Amino acid sequence: MIARSWARSQQYGLSPGDRVLFDSPVVVRPKDIADHGGLLLRAASPEMEQLHGALAPKDWVLACIDMEGVVLNSIGKCNSASQELNQVFRPGALFLETQVGTTGPSCALEERETVIVAGSDHYLEEAHAFTCMATPIFGLDGGIVGVLDASRKGPVTSLYCLESLVIAARAIERRMFMELGNVLLVHLHFRLDILGTPMEGLLAFDQAGKLQGANRIGQQIFSTPGLKPGMDFSELFDMPFAHAACYRRYDLSVPFRMQTQWGSQLYACLTAAPDKKPGQAPVPARQFVTAERRPISPQGPCLEDPVVQSALERARKAFARDIPVLINGETGTGKEVFARLLHEGSARASGPFVAINCSSIPASLIESELFGHVEGAFTGSRKGGAVGKIEQAHQGTLFLDEIGDMPLELQGRLLRVLQERSLSRLGSTAVIKVDCALICATHRDLAQLSQEQGFREDLYYRINGLRVVLPALRERADLALLINRILQNETAAHAPLALEDSALQALLSYSWPGNIRQLHQTLRLAAALAEDEGWIGLRHLPDDVVPATAKASASETQPIPVSAPQFLAGDTLLASEQRAIRAAIEACQGNLSAAARSLGIGRATLYRKLKAMEKE
Ligand SMILES: Nc1ncnc2c1ncn2[C@@H]1O[C@H](COP(=O)(O)OP(=O)(O)OP(=O)(O)O)[C@@H](O)[C@H]1O
């Protein structure tokens, strides 16, 4: 590469003794720099700052140079070691081979490769005391848009600097994608641990699912058949764009398995680059990290569904005026969670939230549970008596779950308490004032129940200040996000897990009679079963979600095909097993989980065998 560059330098009529770098550098007018810079300059500046802080020794001068050889930006310490270089790399200086011969940036621009030009590798003798490393930066169409250079007086002290430079260049490319605005970004790689790093592949699609750009790694991943601008999403992936767009809405950041139209299995995450107004500050590269690197903390309830959101908004307003809220919804739709949210968002948040499930307490005990009792009020009463739930909720919120199951005879007493805001404990005539807000919940239709005389009509109107209906899980628009949220929580203490696309599809299309509670259980089980494999597939979902027949046919197509290892004459059983392991890992491109799956063994077993092989 250096020899080729020297030959070109000679052809340009330069001679090694020329002094052009330090004495009379060619500089374009500063005004032109902004015209040249644009997107590249905005994307490069923050990454250069970060890189400069990380490099040692501290006398490196970093420069971002566009494809026309113009220095857009440079950073260096103002010390004697970097002074000369700061001058050479000042914004506007030109670094084309035609002007300066062989240097790191001019050679990298020409060759489109990373290069180290040290000492006498430089064509011009005046640069022989310096070393420069330069790496190309590729744009949205995979073509070169500039180079990132690091130069210093003296030699390179470690290869770590070069590695950091290359990673910074990838990060700049990533930022340029984030700046695109109003696109769906597909982050992908064969390896889960690469996802979310500057080494991931990136593809950008517009609203119609047409390819807008792909970074260099994305281009490499799709080198056959090759990417062309405007290609349709469905030409590349075995998934409809509408489905991917649904992820976009929910920003599903749990990586999942995606299959290309050529049968390759990839890990992918999807994000949306937000709309950008011209001149707006650069959007920082999204913290779009893999499950391994993301600090997973239990998150709050998922409330992105518009019906839930609007219900919460209305209920909050009513509750703020002490209007009782009645929550309707199938079992497990989150009625208690909703009630707690109301309480916690209200002026009573510092008071108690007292919940009682009217269907789970025997009718004979409900009365004393609710109203409390004095000692000796009935056989078996507690010594010293007991404070009832209503009294406990004083200055807070009383949540009566499954109120439709409250015995009729108690309904009248509850109504009196609500009207008079006072009660007497069982066995006592003393009146106790209670001030509490009321939230009731039921899966039953109370209007109909009261028509059938199963519920007091006057109580129904008393508790029904505002009625909200929580949607069943199968009706929720934020189901994908809920799955993501629950899975993150479930895997928080264990190895991270990705979700295969087929498994996600199955979860999204199931009708969930048990609602969120059932979804929780399903994901908990799947996470436990898939722990060794790295991702959740159809086979980890219970039979009621995915019928056994569907699992069987899926499992025939799932494993990544690995050519059967040849049993060579003279091989021991152990040797042929080791050959099989190596072949599987190679076929799965280093993905140990996939290799274990294709071998029909658990990941832990594969690790054990690899350890044993290492020791030999
Ligand atoms: N918005 C939400 N986001 C995440 N998890 C939720 C959400 N709502 C409810 N859950 C979870 O779903 C489960 C059931 O919730 P909850 O007990 O509130 O439902 P419910 O409708 O009151 O049930 P039931 O009818 O049996 O009383 C709980 O584990 C809860 O943590």
Automatic annotation (TrEMBL):
Cite the Sigma-54 factor interaction domain residue spans from the record: 304-528
Q: Which organism is it from?
A: Metapseudomonas resinovorans (Pseudomonas resinovorans)
Q: What is this protein called?
A: Sigma-54-dependent Fis family transcriptional regulator
Q: Which InterPro entries match?
A: AAA+_ATPase (IPR003593), AAA_lid_NorR (IPR058031), GAF (IPR003018), GAF-like_dom_sf (IPR029016), Homeodomain-like_sf (IPR009057), HTH_Fis (IPR002197), P-loop_NTPase (IPR027417), Sigma_54_int (IPR002078)
Q: Which SMART domains match?
A: AAA
**Protein's UniProt keywords contain Transport:** no
Q: From which residue to which does the signal peptide run? A: none
Domain of life of the native organism: Bacteria
Q: Give UniProt keywords alphabetically.
A: ATP-binding, DNA-binding, Nucleotide-binding, Transcription, Transcription regulation
**Where is the chain membrane-spanning?**
none
